[in-house]
């Protein structure tokens, strides 16, 4: 039987990202993608977040996506609840403060698109093949082959008939089909977020600037209706994707069919209905079987995301909700983490270490899903104004990272742009060239520590670690692999600080004898030696240690 190191079931954004990045960082591994459809194939999920764009840069697919001619997306507008005044955000709001200081950040961090997913996904899958993954379309995976509790391959069929193939690792990237989640019965559904979406495509729908911007720089527009909410997404200059999301019970209790409900609810939404007087519903995609498509939109998480010989990524591992347009971004962001994990796992011969790598992957996954789930749950459970949503964004983030000093508006924009979990922790640096990442951290995640402020507070004082602070170990994603790091932990609290490589040297100076000047001098020497390493300045380290409660000064 033919053997592959990694067999990826499903060639959507998750599968393509995993395939491209495994081949980038571990080109010696044999990677096979089995995709049941023949691409291009239609898919829902057209509005992208800026958080996915740095991953495209890393896979190398960025230029193909950028040049394709998709409608560029600047942000989002909402008309929510009783208050019918549109409001919204733009991805570059946080970056603009950097511009005001005369600094620049690559547009990679603020750029997104509204895409035809048949074309977007096809670009990513072709790119995975260019990176060296073997891609077979029209190859439907039926089930995993299990030997002694371990997944050792798959059974699939293509035009050559039914076949089997051996794998060292099976990545389930089958989206909502969730090959392994169903086979192993691992899905937990959220009853409160048991929704249905009905959607279609409209030719000749109007662009109203305050809702969707203009074809050069667009927004997704979201508006509430009596029974749910509607998305209004320009997927080309003359085609709008319009979708209605409602709780499953609404659909069940209706006498009318989904198409009548969809049209009635659009009529109930004056902001959107008013844009459709010359518009016509039509079938946009060759494989679109109905004018109004209905699709299940039920939030779930997999209790387990990795096991012996297998792992999951993308919608196969968990699905939140379309309200924040986070699905494709999460699939790519976590596809990157899966690829780093695979690279590390195949380099390790130690079972305990391999298990710890997959545990770290699962923890990372759950943290990401949870941030978006909290936001979506809050959205649905409240008839709120924008201030309260902003407030919730802040609460979600602050529960995770107490030390960030973000205003409400900044916190909201960060979640909604797709940077929810990229705190200044080390994992950030896995995604970006370091010099850009440092600027981004400054701009997005709070103002950089100022030397003057640090001096005013700490200069001349002896610095020491709090007696209960402990040194432990942590992991982070960095340049294609999982790496180990030293971590300062405050036991009994959720607070910790991961140290960048080499910063242990600075920590040795936090000994009750040395001062801020000593730390800054030592950090400067290190920066001179390793200009592109993410070493903090002495001031930054001291302020951050203080923020987690690990610093004592005398
Ligand atoms: C109503 C709705 C609206 C949404 N709107 C947005 C949005 O605006 N923005 C956004 O980012 N996300 C949105 N999403 C979510 C987004 O569509 C998904 O999160 C995203 O597509 C996940 O990517 P993936 O690669 O995990 O899965 P998919 O994109 O679903 O890819 C899975 C692939 O696996 C293949 N496959 C399945 N089973 C098998 C098998 N047995 N063998 C081989 N191949 C198989 C499929 O053909 C498919 O190509 C929305 C979702 C819904 C339900």
Short characterization:
By secondary structure, this protein is an alpha+beta fold.
Describe the structure.
With 554 residues, the chain is an alpha+beta fold. The protein has 4 domains: 3-66 and 115-185 and 303-374, FAD/NAD(P)-binding domain (3-Layer(bba) Sandwich), CATH 3.50.50; 71-114 and 187-299, D-Amino Acid Oxidase, Chain A, domain 2 (2-Layer Sandwich), CATH 3.30.9; 384-444, no CATH class; 451-553, Outer Surface Protein A, domain 3 (Alpha-Beta Complex). It is built from 19 helices and 24 strands. Strands 3, 4, 5, 10, 11, 12, 13, 14, 15, 16 and 19 form an 11-stranded mixed sheet that branches. Strands 1, 2, 6, 7, 8, 9, 17 and 18 form an 8-stranded mixed sheet that branches. Strands 21-22-23 form a 3-stranded antiparallel sheet, covered by helices on one side. Strand 22 and strand 23 (496-498) form a beta hairpin. Helix 12 packs antiparallel against helix 13 (386-400). The longest helix has 31 residues, at 351-381. It is globular. Flavin-adenine dinucleotide binds next to helix 1, strand 2, strand 7, strand 16 and helix 11.
Features:
8-stranded mixed β-sheet; D-Amino Acid Oxidase, Chain A, domain 2; binds flavin-adenine dinucleotide; single chain; 11-stranded mixed β-sheet; 4 domains; FAD/NAD(P)-binding domain; 24 strands; alpha+beta; 554 residues
How are the secondary structure elements laid out?
Blueprint: E1 3-9, H1 13-25, E2 31-35, H2 53-59, H3 62-67, E3 71-79, E4 87-90, H4 93-100, E5 112-114, H5 117-130, E6 134-137, E7 140-147, E8 150-158, E9 161-172, H6 179-183, E10 187-203, H7 209-212, E11 213-214, E12 217-225, E13 228-236, E14 239-247, H8 248-252, H9 258-267, H10 270-273, E15 280-282, E16 293-302, E17 306-307, E18 310-312, E19 318-319, H11 327-347, H12 351-381, H13 386-400, H14 408-417, H15 434-444, H16 451-458, E20 463-465, E21 470-478, E22 481-489, E23 496-498, H17 504-507, H18 516-529, H19 538-547, E24 551-553
Parallel strand pairs: 1-2, 1-9, 2-6, 3-12, 9-18
Antiparallel strand pairs: 3-4, 3-5, 7-8, 8-9, 10-14, 10-15, 10-16, 11-12, 12-13, 13-14, 16-19, 17-18, 20-24, 21-22, 22-23
This protein binds flavin-adenine dinucleotide (FAD).
Flavin-adenine dinucleotide is lined by residues 9-15, 34-37, 43-48, 140-141, 173-177, 179, 197, 243, 295, 297, 314-316, 322, 325, 327-329, 331.
